[in-house]
């Protein structure tokens, strides 16, 4: 595993150097949260915790790092010497990977010496923002596909190797059934899948020969790309010829892939040809710059598509390529005295929620039907009836009284021990499906999803208002 301790912004270490000198006995609590859902959705699927824990468990600086720090001539020698023997004394609480999370509620809290907790900001945000973004985008595409499998094959268009590898991991958490990325498949035990490229067809004297050569090599995995020349007059007829030869030899053809053209019309016509030739069980897979909007359109047109291969618009979340998660100071602690902290801005939506916190998911009494989340102080007890206000700073702050519910904390104690964190992406996927099933169906639709309420207790709201007035 690569040591990513230097994957940060310069000012993190400049502040850490200062905190080490000026506030050596101060501990801090930082919250990681986001304000806006990509693609105008309702929620984000949390992903990336395993890699965060892996990195924090092995966080260190080697001699080459320290030599580089000295060459910058920016920081105190005592600080650099301290880094040489650093052992993280930080603790995190986090939502489990696969949990749907909503704006303004912490996904992760980091508690520790302020000089240590500050230096973790960029690394944590880099991992969490990326993997949560891709898991969320994949969830949208899987929702649009209505049960049809999606294969992730965006490695060629990803922004670098790590984006390809961990994007593939996140895509499975979001619901992708397989990946074309062999390294990701090996690392995370993801089914590897794929057909062929047009270059295979073009390399042979004719299309039929190319198909026959492929079928000879892969008689039980013959999925043929049929749009190199002409789907209906060449590709599908030649595929049918080869499929008949495979069947005669005792093999079952897989199907065809269409990568260009009027996909809906071509898929319908190809299905007719395959069915008429006696191959109703063969699958039609499509690719070519797909996203949830295209998938929805194709299925609304009645296109008989069995599988979707999705590349660049999944691995880059092209329509909304940023999850703007932030890392904000919520409290400091000196000599056992906790002081809540707040960021105030002329942009009301950027005002933070102060203090140490817990997030509760509320369910209708005796059910697993979630109807709201509540952000509370970490020392608050959620009673049978509570007074809350909307956590959105743009709301009117009307007080609501909630009762007849079961409350479940979702920020969990997370030891920095990789072996204790679920790391099987298929297990995480199934967990995500369970959590999604708890949410109102209207919050999951792709267009104009219903609002899912995220409240904060009146105690926390009063603290926020008191600090705003004080400052």
From TrEMBL:
Coiled coil regions in record: none
Keyword Transferase: yes
Record's GO cellular component terms: cytosol
EC number(s) from the headed UniProt entry: 6.3.4.21
PTM comment: Transiently phosphorylated on a His residue during the reaction cycle. Phosphorylation strongly increases the affinity for substrates and increases the rate of nicotinate D-ribonucleotide production. Dephosphorylation regenerates the low-affinity form of the enzyme, leading to product release.
Keywords: Glycosyltransferase, Ligase, Phosphoprotein, Pyridine nucleotide biosynthesis, Transferase
UniProt domain Nicotinate phosphoribosyltransferase N-terminal: residue ranges: 6-129
Pathway in which this enzyme or protein is active: Cofactor biosynthesis; NAD(+) biosynthesis; nicotinate D-ribonucleotide from nicotinate: step 1/1
GO molecular function list: nicotinamide phosphoribosyltransferase activity; nicotinate phosphoribosyltransferase activity
Alphabetical list of Pfam families matching this protein: NAPRTase, NAPRTase_C, NAPRTase_N
Catalytic activity: 5-phospho-alpha-D-ribose 1-diphosphate + nicotinate + ATP + H2O = nicotinate beta-D-ribonucleotide + ADP + phosphate + diphosphate
Superkingdom, natural source: Bacteria
Domain Nicotinate phosphoribosyltransferase C-terminal: 356-463
InterPro entries with a match to the protein in the record: Aldolase_TIM (IPR013785), N/Namide_PRibTrfase (IPR041525), NAPRTase_C (IPR041619), NAPRTase_N (IPR040727), Nic_PRibTrfase-Fam (IPR007229), Nic_PRibTrfase_pncB (IPR006405), Nicotinate_pribotase-like_C (IPR036068)
This protein's record includes keyword Phosphoprotein: yes
Record domain Nicotinate/nicotinamide phosphoribosyltransferase: where: 150-350
UniProt enzyme class: ligase
GO biological process, alphabetically ordered: NAD+ biosynthetic process via the salvage pathway
NCBIfam families in alphabetical order: NAPRTase_put, PRK09243.1-2, PRK12484.1
Function: Catalyzes the first step in the biosynthesis of NAD from nicotinic acid, the ATP-dependent synthesis of beta-nicotinate D-ribonucleotide from nicotinate and 5-phospho-D-ribose 1-phosphate.
Family: Belongs to the NAPRTase family.
Protein name, UniProt field: Nicotinate phosphoribosyltransferase
Naturally occurring in which organism (per UniProt): Secundilactobacillus collinoides
Organism classification: Bacteria, Bacillati, Bacillota, Bacilli, Lactobacillales
């Amino acid at each position: 595993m690569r040591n990513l301790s230097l994957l940060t912004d310069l000012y993190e270490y400049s502040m850490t150097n200062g905190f080490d000198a000026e506030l050596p006995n101060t501990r801090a609590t930082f919250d990681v949260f986001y304000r806006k859902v990509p693609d105008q959705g309702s929620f984000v699927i949390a992903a990336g915790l395993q890699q965060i824990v892996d990195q924090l468990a092995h966080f260190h600086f080697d001699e080459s790092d320290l030599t580089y720090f000295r060459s910058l001539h920016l920081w105190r020698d005592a600080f650099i010497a301290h880094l040489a023997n650093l052992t993280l004394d930080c603790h995190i609480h986090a939502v489990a990977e696969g949990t749907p999370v909503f704006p303004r509620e912490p996904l992760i809290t980091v508690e520790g010496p302020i000089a240590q907790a500050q230096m973790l900001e960029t690394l944590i945000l880099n991992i969490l923002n990326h993997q949560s973004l891709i898991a969320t985008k994949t969830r949208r595409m899987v929702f649009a596909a209505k049960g049809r499998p999606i294969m992730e094959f965006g490695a060629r268009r990803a922004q670098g190797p790590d984006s390809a590898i961990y994007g593939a991991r996140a895509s499975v958490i979001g619901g992708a059934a397989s990946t074309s990325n062999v390294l990701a498949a090996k690392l995370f035990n993801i089914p590897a899948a794929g057909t062929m490229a047009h270059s295979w067809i073009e390399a042979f004297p004719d299309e039929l020969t190319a198909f026959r050569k492929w079928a000879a090599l892969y008689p039980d995995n013959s999925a043929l790309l049929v749009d190199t020349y002409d789907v209906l007059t060449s590709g599908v007829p030649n595929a049918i010829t080869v499929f008949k030869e495979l069947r005669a030899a005792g093999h079952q053809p897989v199907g065809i892939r269409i990568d260009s053209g009027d996909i809906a019309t071509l898929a319908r016509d190809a299905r007719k040809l395959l069915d008429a030739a006696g191959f109703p069980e063969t699958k039609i897979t499509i690719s070519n710059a797909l996203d949830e909007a295209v998938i929805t359109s194709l299925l609304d047109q009645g296109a008989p598509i069995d599988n979707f291969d999705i590349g660049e618009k999944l691995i880059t979340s092209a329509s909304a390529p940023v999850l703007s998660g932030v890392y904000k100071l919520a409290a400091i602690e000196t000599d056992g005295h906790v002081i809540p902290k707040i960021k105030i801005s002329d942009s009301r939506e950027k005002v933070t929620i102060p203090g140490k916190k817990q997030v509760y998911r509320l369910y209708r009494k005796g059910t697993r039907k979630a109807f709201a989340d509540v952000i509370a102080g970490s020392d608050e007890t959620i009673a049978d009836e509570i007074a809350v206000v909307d956590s959105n700073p743009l709301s009117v702050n009307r007080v609501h009284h909630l009762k007849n519910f079961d409350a479940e904390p979702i920020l969990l104690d997370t030891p920095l021990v990789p072996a204790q964190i679920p790391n099987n992406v298929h297990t995480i996927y199934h967990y995500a499906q369970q959590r999604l099933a708890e949410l109102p169906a209207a919050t999951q639709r792709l267009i104009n999803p219903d609002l899912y309420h995220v409240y904060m207790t009146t105690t926390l709201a009063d603290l926020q208002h008191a600090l705003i007035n004080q400052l």
